Amino acid sequence: MCRQVCTVGVITNDELQNPRSRALLLSSIQKDMFDYSEEISEVIYKCCLCGYCQSWCKGHWSPPPYIKAARADIVTRGLAGEAVEAIASKLIKSGNLYGFSSDELDGELKAEIGKHQGILKNLLILGSETRWLAPGMAIPNMKLLDKAGTAYSVLKDEDTSGFELFCLGFADEAKRKTESLLARIKETKAQTVITVSPQDRYYLTEEIKQMGLALDGVEVISIVEHLAKLLETGALKFQESGRGLELCYQDTNYYSRYCGIVEQPRKLLGALPGAVLKEMLWYGSEAHSMGDPLFAELHGDIADKAAETRLKDVLEAGPVTAVTSSAYEMKTLKRLIPKETGIEVRDLSEIILSFM
Amino acid sequence: MKTYFDRMILSELEDAVGEKNCSTREADKYVHAVDFYWVPRLWVDRGKMPAMPDYIVYPESTEQVSKVLKIANYYKIPVTTWGGGSGSQGGALPVCGGIVLDTKKMNKVLELNKAAYTVTAETGIIHQHLEWEINKQGFSTMHLPASIGCATLGGFLAHRGTGVLSTKYGKIEDLIVNMEVVLPNGDVMNTLNVPRNAAGPDLNQIFVGSEGSFGVMTKATLKVFDHPEVRKYRAFMFRNMHDALEAGRKIMTRRLQPSVIRMYDEAETVHQIERVLGITKPGAYLVFGFDGYKEMVDIQEKIATEICMETAYEDLGPIFGESWWKNKYKFFFPPYIMDLPEAFGTMDTVATYDKVEQIYWAMKEAAESFEGCKFIAHFSHWYEWGTMMYDRFILHPDYVPQDPDEAIRLYQKIWTKCLRAALDNGGVLNEHHGVGLKLGYMMKEQYGSAFQVLQGIKKALDPNGIMNPGKLGL
Question: Which ipTM score applies to this complex?
């Protein structure tokens, strides 16, 4: 019971692209009926790891870890292919998916980061997605924390957490990047790490355990969870400014399916005076996936189609403002939304900030 | 490519459906060579390569299907139609090689007719997608089998599928209004607009259940229904299967129109009901459901309850009825469904009420004559004249030979003995899983001289025998 939801399978209608076929191929490799080949490698790298299959699996199977393990085997055998190798190389050298050097960081963001240095209780990890893909989203996140009275620092040269390398199957390289980040986190003496990228929240709390790594004594939470806590304690004060504003929240995989972060963004949006929260037909852990920045680099055409499916969901929800908490999703939805629909896409922190 | 001739045929197929919709890659062939039939799954589980197709095509339109069949018919290349690959009978396995025609790129919902209460769709659509699409507008096909998430509309039509609500809403052959079919020679035909007429034999019913042997169904119009105002379920415990069967028979023959009756024999009540629903009572569990307008449902439920309480030893009430509905698909998935390394077979027998119990005991005796083999059954699709028995043998892994040849030999022996027990006692093989590769060898025995009618249709429509060879016993 997952064929009907497999993000890539539904878009491509390709029999190879569903959890059944991937599992069949991998089990046959285990039985030495096949060896990894270029075509099998292609199949394994076409999965977007959205986890939709596992949330629908009646048998409680969890295919994404198998896919990642297979990718690690493929990398070991040198069969990952040019596109994958090129992305891995960019990540290793530049610390981000796009190959930007630290000199190329957005000036305004650089200045904002400059204001948040020193040893403080909280460390804000922007994540390469936010830092490089949508610096304009990083700034409202930072300003919102300032306004809410959260004292935090930001690393000047933030490298990848290792998440993308881990997903690509470059386990050793991922581990090195992660160890380096963990060491820097420890140097800051922060007690809490607040992540902006949904992938980093999952990776730093769950996936790194598979490499025997842990952030002992440091709590890792997403900015959405942090804001929800601030709301509970009364640290977020809102003003009337959005009467009649209809909002719907776009659940990103790594929050809703992997970390169970579903209620927190809704509590935040529901607390905005005058705003009306609507739901798409598919929401929470059942929300259609848009993939993630890594998948978009590998298979941009499929990622765009996944985003178009999600836009259809937004449109069906009515004339609403779609609210996201992922830089990649915000940028992609904004790029693909047809102008005539009048639908707006806004970042969660930015919209909350507009009420403060 | 094996030869230049293979390459030339591939070029023709690429011309018909486009290069991107054609594949000869090994991985593609392999995933189209294993479905949910136990035999190929055992085969690959033991590390052996299954029978593979030579070409995979993904047509995007009826016209492209027509072109593919014209090519195949000219060169006399086998064509096996593949939808979701979720069949349990091996009906979509390309055992003779040739072309696998994967329908999944023909998956559009074409029209929801709100006046006539019908929906028309391309047959490659995953049925759950069709259902979700019309659910948004307040309708349902009420065709809700456990395989809804992986099977296609065409797959259901091909093997006469059924869903959990079939007792009220019917099987797929009751839901079909009309269809478009590409014949083996590439001609495109449509059945008549409406399913009830006196314009000769019903062409819909020739193609429904034909398992891709008479052509490729490309579009279909199905009946749709409003969502009911209420759904109610109620469960009972009977001392034995006989009493429960009699209660079910009375509910049906008194025409109370339940949406569902499911009754589990004593063995399956322990094997499944206890594990899935947590009911640890002895005897046979029966659940019924009614849906529709509340006032009508209340009366139906009241009368059905009275019937059950004539012999049931306990009314488990709505809670254990609702919990069955909530968990209705759970029975068919791990860890509750049987799986390798067990050998198992769902025999899916249908018979009239006067014969069904006798068939049950005969099949149980046949299955349990094999060491390590047990027999369980539930009765899941009910009619005014009889019921369907979802009867299964389960061979303990310790008794399944490691050697795949030996394992299949034993497996076939169990099947044959059980099927003959059903036939000898007036049963019909099979109610809704289809025939496929699994039961093809029994078709002549079952039909007797009537089988020549099916053979004649096959010969007339597919004189070159290209469509799904090795299936249906044709």
Answer: 0.94
